[in-house]
Amino acid sequence: MNQKLLTDFYALIAELWCGPPVEDVISDKLQRDAEEMVRKLEYFDEEAAMLLSRFLTENAISEEDYIDLFELDPECALYLGSHSYDEPKTCANAALSDRNEYMIDLMGVYRHFGHVPNGQELPDYLPLMVDFLAMTVESKDDPIRQKLIDEYLLPYLPPMRSRLEALGTNYLYLFDAMEKVICSESESQPLPNQREQTVRAYVG
Fold first, then answer.
1. What is the domain-level CATH number for residue 132?
2. Whole-Å CA distances, 107 to 13, 86, 99, 130
């Protein structure tokens, strides 16, 4: 998959995670962009294209249902770390929690590329992480970016996938299309054995 298509794919997936657009004009444009992505993706990853197409075809969800699913008191939080780490009981425990360390490491990766989140979302917010992949496709050979994928993204996807599957939501198709492409990218970028010394200079 070429860099332009990979960038467009990640940017689209990040936008699709962010909820049903309120305005019909935005919704129509997003739908057209997504359908065009399916057509382009078929030449590179037929399974990912099929999964994205199923999500678009069966994605009948209201804004209220989206909020119940992913926001406020969500059935499935969009914060990856929340599916892998227990929520701390106190503020003091939060500072010492494994999830806090995970998010600090993520911030180290973001800063390495000069993309510091605006503070509106936590570093492990899935749409933010996927959008970051879109912004850094041209640096796909950088071992820091590969560390993000291999150590801070892919290992944290299964618990969230299990939750989406248990809920029976069509967002499982979006999730699987996203994971398929991320895995394909990771497999096409084998890391050199010496990369750890380079990575440790930037990320805890």
1. 1.10.3480.10
2. 21, 20, 12, 14
